[in-house]
């Protein structure tokens, strides 16, 4: 049973938040992927889907953290980066947009965790395709965030957020699944 749990935990850490985010978007006709941040869905005062969205983030972060704890065959640097990223995702769900600056800080820490993980993959992986993908993903993520913060394009952060997670997930699942 433990082996099966360990095997599917990384997948659950991606699928659980994804399902909750997609469901939250589906039940929020006001949400605009170009004009909003994903965290707008988790605003405890302004969003009726906030509990679903935030619980998805917390369970996703908890699953990622647990994956790092139980994955003894994985390099300890990956596990440390994943624990950091998992805890920061939990904090994004706990300290939603109602918390203002605190929410922004924990969100930035989460995306730094993603970047750190991709950097580690670029430095540590033996397969050239994984190294190349990790490097390219990291460059794209840095570019989309730089464009967003410098030019406010797109106006909302959802596109850079989705891009970051979408480029991170294949490397994460390759290493842990």
From TrEMBL:
Keywords: Membrane, Transmembrane, Transmembrane helix
Superkingdom of origin: Archaea
Entry keyword annotation includes Membrane: yes
Transmembrane region(s): 50-70, 77-95, 101-120, 132-151, 157-176
Alphabetical list of InterPro entries matching this protein: DUF998 (IPR009339)
Classification via PANTHER family: HYPOTHETICAL MEMBRANE PROTEIN, CONSERVED, DUF998 FAMILY
Protein name (Swiss-Prot/TrEMBL): DUF998 domain-containing protein
Taxonomic lineage: Archaea, Thermoproteota, Thermoprotei, Desulfurococcales, Desulfurococcaceae
């Amino acid at each position: 049973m433990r082996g099966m749990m360990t095997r599917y935990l990384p997948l659950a850490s991606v699928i659980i938040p994804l399902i909750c985010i997609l469901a939250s978007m589906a039940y929020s006709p006001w949400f605009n992927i170009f004009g909003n941040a994903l965290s707008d869905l988790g605003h405890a005062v302004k969003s009726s889907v906030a509990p679903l969205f935030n619980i998805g983030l917390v369970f996703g972060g908890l699953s990622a953290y647990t994956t790092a704890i139980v994955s003894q065959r994985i390099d300890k640097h990956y596990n440390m980066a994943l624990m950091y990223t998992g805890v920061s995702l939990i904090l994004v769900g706990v300290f939603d947009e109602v918390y203002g600056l605190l929410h922004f800080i924990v969100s930035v820490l989460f995306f730094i965790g993603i970047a750190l993980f991709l950097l580690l993959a670029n430095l540590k992986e033996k397969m050239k395709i994984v190294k190349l993908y990790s490097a390219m993903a990291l460059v794209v993520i840095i570019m989309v965030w730089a464009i967003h913060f410098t030019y406010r394009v797109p106006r909302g952060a959802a596109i850079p957020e989705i891009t970051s997670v979408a480029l991170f997930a294949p490397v994460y699942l390759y290493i842990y699944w």
